[in-house]
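Hi X.,

You mentioned you wanted examples for the new student's onboarding notes, showing what a folding record looks like when two proteins sit in one file. Here is a clean example. The first protein comes first, with its sequence line followed by its structure tokens.
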Amino acid sequence: MIIFDYILLAIIIILGLFGFKKGFIESLGSVLGIVVAALLASRFYPLLADRFGGSNMWNVIAFVIIFGLAVKIVGLLFWVVGKIFRIVTVLPFVSSFDRLLGLLLGLVEGIFVMAVILSFALKYPINEWIIWQMSNSVVAKTLLSIGNIFVPLFPEAVQKIKSFL
């Protein structure tokens, strides 16, 4: 393993620890928020972008706006449910179980986020060092195979973001 592998694993573990802190319900909201937001944004970004001219730049901006709003709305809903659920988690066993499941979902969220980021980094490379690190990284190769599942959810404008770099 190279240093890049350790960096990727550290990021995933940190997101897992955030999930541990948030608990199961809020972590579930984060994971579902990402999926729901990607689906909504990929479906509705043209409607918003067309209001501003429909250029590639506006397609990307519209996608990011819809994605961000959807993540926040889903996150807020699950935050409220999580606060209600906290009443039940005063019991020691339930609290531990809630945090453990939150850790697992946080790790899943970290894997999804890093998979998508690496997929875009490979598709639109910024410099040779990143490409070299990714090509020699065991963890990156695994994450890239996962990321290939998510890339089709993003609009063509986001997939062509290289033209803006």
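Then the second protein repeats the pattern, sequence line and then tokens:
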Amino acid sequence: MARKKLEERNIRKLTKTGGNTYYVTLPIEAIRSLGWKKSQKLVVEVDERRERIVIKDWEPKSKKK
């Protein structure tokens, strides 16, 4: 299998897995640069004004003492 050209690496397909679930694979370079790990919790936000999806690291709410 030939490697993708550099400019094509960040072009991804939207895939449906069943029901109402879709997924997009992320480039390993992006995952490594963010320091994300397997099974890490992430927050998905929709920015309708800019027509973008934002994926951020999940941060637990601090516990009140």
